[in-house]
Specification:
Number of domains: 1
Structural class: mainly alpha
CATH superfamily: Amino acid/polyamine transporter I
Oligomer: single chain
Number of strands: 0
CATH class: Mainly Alpha
Order of helices and strands: HHHHHHHHHHHHHHHH
Shape: globular
Distance between the termini: 50 Å
Helix content: over 70%
Largest sheet: none
């Protein structure tokens, strides 16, 4: 890859790309799921998930090193598994995007209907959300990129303000709650929340093929996301009790995200305001990024150009199916995130990288300038842990 090693991008910039792709609407659900099992068990889950997803990300760097040009995960799967790998990856990517959009639209309906000064149904709120921000998606990458920068600035600012406002309201006794019955419940959403893997080809290209710098960017970016999640979980779990009215268990049963519980528990005007805006920024940034990505994905699959002539129907194909599903099942926020994480993300971001590296290293004898440590044992452990996540999600889905 020597032809690419010219003026690589900044490692800090790459870290921000990785962290930004992790942080989004998924963090609105994390404290609810983690809080049910308790703070200290949650720390174990959080760190294990971070290590697991970071390791599988490093596996994809190694696979990326097989190529001399910019590629995506679908191309990597095709090289390792043939046309069947491309078909499976294409299908799973489509389901992943759709599942995430279902979660974001369902979450937006609850959010906007809860803090508007006038009465409005959750479904109408979700439709208004989709129409307004769907128009931005229609105008394409430049408009979405500009809007997303402003929204990300708002997300960071409101996050910091909420930490500042809420830190004094923390009740340390709430950290003592432990209920191992819910221990594995958050796994799938944690996988989604650390799902930066689709950005690896872009970051590798940004680094001009320098895989060592890409590795540093991934380690730094995923660690940044870990720290942000940690402070956020401390805040919510330390303020919102598990049981009772507006508690975490009620939020889980209603499919409501964490800031709604926080606002109802504290009854502070400032917290209510910033919690609403934080939720807004988290959901909108995720919705815009995933909608645009899905629109381009569909365009690539159908071999058409995403321009103003085609964007209107591409945007409809990207947004209308998840809108219909979210309106039909308004409490599906956690289930949609769980489906995306346990089935789609685990297979293409965890199982596939381990299998691709196995085939590349030990069968096809591929060469890459970066090799992940661990050997066959680590690859087997990745696959086994992935199976645990899938089986756990199946059990969770059929037990409710």
């Amino acid at each position: 890859m020597t032809d690419l090693k010219l003026k690589p991008g900044s490692v800090f910039g790459g870290m921000l790309l990785i962290a930004g792709s992790c942080i989004g609407a998924g963090m609105l659900g994390l404290p609810v799921l983690l809080g049910l099992t308790g703070f200290f068990p949650s720390l174990i889950l959080l760190f294990v998930s971070w290590i697991f997803m970071t390791y599988t990300g490093l596996l994809l760097i190694e696979v990326n090193g097989w190529f001399y040009e910019r590629v995506n995960i679908i191309s990597m799967a095709e090289k390792a598994f043939g046309s069947i790998g491309r078909l499976i990856s294409w299908t799973l990517y489509l389901f992943l995007f759709y599942s995430l959009l279902v979660a974001y639209i369902a979450g937006s309906g609850k959010l906007f209907s809860s803090f508007l000064p006038f009465a409005i149904s959750q479904n109408i709120s979700g439709i208004i959300f989709v129409i307004f921000f769907g128009i931005l998606v229609y105008f394409g990458t430049k408009v979405v990129d500009f809007s997303n920068r402003l929204l990300m600035a708002g997300l960071v600012l409101t996050y910091l303000i909420m930490i500042f406002l809420g830190i004094s309201k923390i009740n340390p006794s709430l950290f003592l709650h432990v209920d191992m019955k819910y221990f594995l419940l958050p796994l799938a959403v944690l996988i989604t929340s650390f799902g930066f893997h689709n950005m690896i080809p872009s970051v590798t290209a940004y680094m001009k093929g320098d895989l060592k710098r890409t590795k540093i960017a991934i380690l730094g970016g995923s660690f940044t996301a870990l720290v942000i999640y940690l402070f956020w979980i401390v805040l919510i779990v330390g303020i919102v009790p598990v049981g009772g009215k507006f508690g975490l268990l009620q939020a889980y049963n209603l499919g409501a995200e964490a800031t709604i519980s926080l606002r109802n528990i504290l009854q502070s005007k400032a917290v209510v305001t910033f919690a609403a805006w934080f939720s807004f920024f988290a959901i909108v940034t995720s919705f815009l990024a995933q909608s645009l990505g899905l629109m381009h994905f569909i365009a690539d699959g159908l071999k058409v150009k995403p321009n103003y002539k085609n964007n209107w129907w591409l945007a409809l194909l990207a947004i209308v199916p998840p809108l219909i599903f979210a309106l039909s099942y308004p409490n599906i926020f956690f289930k949609a995130l769980g489906f995306a994480g346990a089935y789609c993300a685990v297979i293409i971001f965890c199982i596939f990288p381990a299998l691709m590296v196995w085939i590349g290293r030990y069968i096809n004898k591929e060469t890459s300038s970066y090799h992940v440590k661990g050997g066959k044992i680590s690859l087997i452990l990745v696959i086994l842990f992935s199976i645990v996540i899938i089986v756990n999600q199946l059990f969770t889905s059929f037990s409710k």
